[in-house]
Design brief:
By secondary structure, the protein is an alpha/beta fold. It is 47% helix and 14% strand. The radius of gyration is 18 Å and the shape is globular.
Length: 272
């Protein structure tokens, strides 16, 4: 497995990328960084150039991107603008590919949330059609779109891994797969059996956080992390795992969290 961090949740700067933490991430030993695509698309060219130069100076790759669509976009409902969304997606995917990204995460809760009074089923069909439109663009860039199920408090559409797999199946494109986020997975109390039975076909990326407070993991005394990683081992998932969490002291927690994740993953692989 390869381990990285989503830095946007740690951001203290106006650009919202969390790039001010790249040195700490690299020093801690992470394999890659996951950066927010919508925030990078909003950056001026000189800001993007500085970000590229920083990544190059650290020999650090942005292998994945989260935050696909800006919060201001409307992907569902009567005001949805599919042509504008597709145009933006083409530009965003090109940027992601230029940074070396192989996965782009499609959670985008505020953009995807179905407006009150609009049928959920109709909003779902809008998302299916959007993904069918942009999946070939992603394929041309060598990118797989990872559908991220989100807890109901963040979005009213696609809340479980099983629902994400159904969406991917309806889109029916090889470059559209599904992400499992340990935080959302636990908040929604989804059975591990869903991951075990569906993950082998659909899982393409993992996000991780301690569910209590959505913070960086520090210990696993009850073996909950181990059970999750053992399921990943059972379905032969050996891809990327990004910690997507809050931290009051990233410099102090980054290295310890990585060591814990690697230890748990190794133990799970031995016990599967």
């Amino acid at each position: 497995m390869r381990f990285g961090c989503c830095l946007n949740m740690l951001s203290t700067q106006p650009d919202g990328t969390g790039a001010e933490h790249l040195d700490t991430l690299k020093a801690a030993g992470y394999d890659y960084v996951e950066l927010p695509l919508a925030e990078m698309c909003a950056m001026p060219e000189d800001g993007l150039l500085r970000l590229r130069e920083k990544l190059a100076s650290l020999d650090l790759s942005c292998e994945t991107c989260n935050n696909f669509f800006p919060k201001t976009f409307c992907l569902t409902g009567a005001d949805a603008e599919p042509a504008r969304a597709a145009e933006y997606a083409a530009r965003a995917l090109a940027l992601a590919a230029s940074l070396g990204a192989k996965r782009v995460v499609f959670g985008s809760g505020p953009a995807k949330n179905v407006p009150d009074g609009f049928p959920i089923s109709s909003g779902y069909e809008q998302v299916v059609r959007l993904l069918q439109t942009i999946a070939p663009i992603a394929a041309e860039q060598g990118i797989t779109i990872a559908i991220e199920p989100l807890r109901k408090a963040e979005c009213n559409l696609i809340n479980t891994f099983a629902e994400g797999c159904r969406l991917a199946e309806d889109v029916a494109h090889p470059n559209v797969k599904v992400l499992v986020d340990y935080y959302h997975f636990n908040v929604e109390q989804e059975p591990m059996e869903n991951l075990r039975t569906l993950g082998g076909k659909w899982l393409t990326h993992v996000h991780f956080a301690e569910p209590a407070g959505r913070i960086y993991p520090e210990a696993d005394p009850e073996g909950r992390y181990l059970a999750f990683f053992r399921t990943l081992a059972e379905i032969h998932y050996d891809g990327r795992v990004s910690i997507e969490a809050y931290s009051a002291d990233y410099r102090a927690q980054a290295g310890a969290a990585l060591r814990l994740m690697r230890e748990v993953a190794e133990n799970a692989a031995e016990r599967k």
